[in-house]
Amino acid sequence: MPAPWPHLRREGRDLYTENATPGLRSYGEELKVVDGREFRHWDPWRSKLAAYAAREGPPFDPGRTRAVLYLGGAHGTTVSHLSDLLPEARIFVVEKSATAFAPLLTLARSRKNLYPILADAHLPERYRAEVGIVQFLYQDVAQRDQATIFRENALACLAPDGTGVLMLKIRSVTQRRPVGQILRESERELSQLGLRTGRPVELAPFAREHLAIPVTA
């Protein structure tokens, strides 16, 4: 049965996003045509947002999401599917690595709603004017201070009624402390800005020792 989202299709456990650039693949993914519309397979083993969406549904309202700030775009696998899901939204993608940034630039040439930014997510003041206010903030970075980065970007760019997801990489924070302690510390960090956190979602087996934390401003 199709999922109740305009550009997302669910077939059993598999997810597909409607291809915003028909005929083009982003990373060798499967393409299929259903009722004259082309869809790309969205693999939860390659995308933590896909793993989350398969369990909870996409964590944003497609009807009111006009702009997205994506922290940690890497080579653009998940970014490309977010571009499919929100074809009318502006998606600002921050990536620090120049090596990963090159494929993002290539992807953006065929997807006009992507705006790659070569920058450090620790410093939202350097791109805040370019990004403006967003309705959805997504973060997937391997840093010890992940919650702080999310909080500072939310303070800079997230709309008062916006939502977000922090993909918490436990072992990027510490190799020793228990998962529960790290989660509580991260939630406390976010709450200092008045952000509300929802029920964390474990992403195993797709991504071990990762928790998706839904956030509401």
Write the layout of secondary structure elements.
Elements: E1 8-11, E2 14-18, E3 31-34, E4 37-42, H1 48-56, E5 67-71, H2 77-85, E6 90-95, H3 98-110, E7 114-118, H4 128-131, E8 134-139, H5 146-157, E9 158-169, H6 170-173, H7 179-191, E10 196-197, E11 201-202, E12 210-216
Parallel strand pairs: 5-6, 5-8, 6-7, 8-9
Antiparallel strand pairs: 1-2, 2-4, 3-4, 9-12, 10-12, 11-12
Helix pairs in contact: 5-7
What does this 3D model show about the protein?
- With 217 residues, this protein is an alpha/beta fold.
- The protein has one domain (44-216): Vaccinia Virus protein VP39 (Rossmann fold), CATH 3.40.50.
- Helix content is 29%, strand content 29%.
- It contains 7 helices and 12 strands.
- The protein has helices at residues 48-56, 77-85, 98-110, 128-131, 146-157, 170-173, 179-191; strands at 8-11, 14-18, 31-34, 37-42, 67-71, 90-95, 114-118, 134-139, 158-169, 196-197, 201-202, 210-216.
- The strands form 2 sheets. Strands 5, 6, 7, 8, 9, 10, 11 and 12 form an 8-stranded mixed sheet that branches.
- Helix 5 (146-157) runs parallel beside helix 7.
